[in-house]
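Regression test case RT-17, inverse folding.

Input:
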């Protein structure tokens, strides 16, 4: 038997976490023990009361094994060579009970009154000085089948350890349904194909019945393809009890007619032929078990691959989802920024708001205008932009970013001072008493420089109108003053819109730079392939490869 194959099967069983006490675990252990055994083992099995023990006693020429009119064998009794008849009982607690005869078999190797085996017996061994046994042959007498599950399980396990199986048939009820199931499930399906059938009790049939039985026996022999040496039949007629009696009496004539001599010759030929190639003879049983373990390996490998592939698909789907979400969030955020930036585009601001702004500055209604036109528009954009970042932070689980806070620029303030223009003497006291006039919008912007001078020049006209005094008769000068002060309001409005553009755009630019880490993060997938799962898959694939390589040798 291929020892490397057994080693690889044991390694696979360990990786598959097969219970050592399960049927498969027992089979593997049995075959490992079989591989280490040098003796050739012949197991005899069949239903109760089919004459198995009687047949073995006839082969040995001695009433070595217990036989009676009722089924009695309640243990697997192994008969090996010994210089004298002796019995050794090994109990499950390790205790060994030895005797110089087989009398203790009645106590330890027979069924109790409830037809049950003892549960404290691990092994029963009988030694006997027989030439056939001296060649390294072991005979195994198994309990009868079709009675209790305990006996059937024991028989099933021990058949796997045998090198040759002898199936005893009762020709009076040839091949019951149970026997056919045993042939299929216990032998054929497990690769046990070195099988010989022994037909017992033929002497109890009438001649015509014997002919019918012979026909049916040939059908049994042909339906089960035994692997035996050339010229060796796989079915024999042996009348066990007459054969035993003839052996005990030395009646050679009856021994010959009983069929025992031909059967013993066949056994010797089989053993002689197969012992030379014992490893090859045992290989089919091991290969059958190997196929079963291969199937388990392949199923587990397929399951692990499916789980790994499923996990990878989940990771791929999650990655695709995150990438798509990132694209959508980023696009929405960019559109919101683009929308407010387009609104802040200076030519657009000048085009849409400069003229209305001049009017509200003149009318000192800038605060109301700003609350109606500027603040709502920027507050909406600010909220929309911050919402996109919040969504990104929540979806990608990134650190929080300080939200966008748009601060409006200070609004304009027009300060008009009195111009340095000589006044008539009679009006000196009135003009001197005119204090500087401020046209305040409440927006905090101060008009200075040349523009301030222009506005200040116009202040005289305003002051004169307020005091009821006539203004300069020079209409051209008055017209110039009006134009210059109008230009001052125009510039004030333009300057505010310019600062609205530049200051808010700078705020948005700084915010864009710091918010980018939340909007455009590096995509990471939390679920990764389990390294332990991958290692288990690799181990199982390696076990399968080793088994296939060993089985092909």
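Golden output:
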């Amino acid at each position: 038997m291929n020892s490397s194959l057994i080693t690889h099967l044991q390694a696979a069983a360990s990786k598959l976490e097969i219970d050592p006490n399960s049927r498969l675990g027992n089979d593997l252990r049995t075959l490992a023990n079989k591989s280490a055994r040098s003796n050739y083992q012949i197991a005899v099995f069949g239903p109760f009361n089919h004459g198995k023990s009687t047949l073995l006693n006839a082969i040995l020429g001695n009433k070595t094994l217990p036989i009676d009119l009722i089924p009695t064998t309640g243990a697997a009794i192994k008969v090996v060579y010994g210089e004298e008849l002796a019995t050794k009982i090994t109990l499950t607690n390790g205790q060994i009970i030895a005797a110089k005869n087989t009398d203790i078999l009645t106590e330890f190797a027979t069924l109790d009154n409830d037809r049950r085996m003892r549960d404290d017996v691990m092994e029963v061994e009988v030694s006997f000085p027989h030439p056939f046994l001296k060649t390294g042959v072991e005979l195994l007498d198994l309990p009868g089948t079709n009675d209790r599950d305990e006996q059937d399980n024991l028989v099933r396990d021990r058949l796997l350890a045998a090198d040759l199986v002898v199936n005893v048939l009762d020709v009076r009820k040839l091949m019951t349904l149970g026997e056919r199931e045993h042939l299929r499930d216990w032998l054929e399906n497990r690769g046990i194909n070195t099988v010989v059938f022994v037909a017992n009790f033929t002497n109890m049939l009438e001649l015509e019945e014997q002919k019918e039985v012979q026909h049916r026996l040939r059908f049994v022999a042909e339906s089960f393809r035994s692997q035996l040496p050339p010229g060796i039949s796989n079915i024999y007629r042996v009348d066990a009890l007459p054969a035993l009696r003839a052996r005990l009496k030395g009646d050679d004539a009856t021994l010959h007619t009983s069929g025992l001599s031909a059967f013993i010759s066949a056994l010797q030929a089989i053993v002689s032929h197969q012992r030379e190639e014992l490893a090859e003879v045992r290989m089919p049983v091991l290969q059958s078990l190997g196929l079963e373990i291969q199937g388990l390996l392949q199923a587990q490998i397929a399951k692990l691959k499916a789980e790994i592939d499923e996990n990878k698909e989940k990771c791929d789907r999650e990655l695709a989802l995150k990438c798509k979400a990132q694209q959508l969030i980023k696009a929405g955020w960019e559109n919101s920024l683009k929308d407010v930036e387009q609104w802040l585009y200076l030519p657009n601001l000048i085009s849409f708001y400069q003229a209305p702004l001049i009017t509200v500055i003149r009318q000192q209604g800038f605060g109301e205008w700003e609350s109606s036109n500027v603040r709502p528009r920027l507050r909406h954009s600010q909220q929309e932009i911050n919402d996109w970042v919040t969504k990104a932070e929540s979806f990608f689980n990134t650190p929080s970013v300080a939200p966008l806070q748009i601060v409006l620029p200070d609004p304009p303030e027009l300060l008009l001072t009195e111009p340095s223009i000589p006044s008539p003497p009679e009006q000196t006291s009135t003009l001197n008493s005119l204090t500087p006039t401020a046209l305040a919008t409440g927006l905090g912007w101060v008009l200075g420089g040349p523009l301030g001078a222009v506005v200040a020049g116009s202040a005289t006209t305003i002051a004169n109108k307020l005091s009821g005094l006539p203004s300069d008769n020079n209409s051209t000068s008055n017209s110039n003053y009006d134009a210059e002060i109008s230009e001052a309001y125009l510039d004030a409005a333009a300057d505010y819109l310019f600062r609205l553009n530049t200051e808010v755009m700078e705020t948005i630019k700084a915010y864009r730079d710091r918010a980018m880490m939340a909007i455009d993060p590096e995509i990471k997938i939390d679920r990764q392939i389990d390294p332990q799962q991958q290692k288990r898959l690799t181990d199982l694939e390696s076990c399968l490869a080793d088994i296939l390589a060993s089985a092909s040798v």
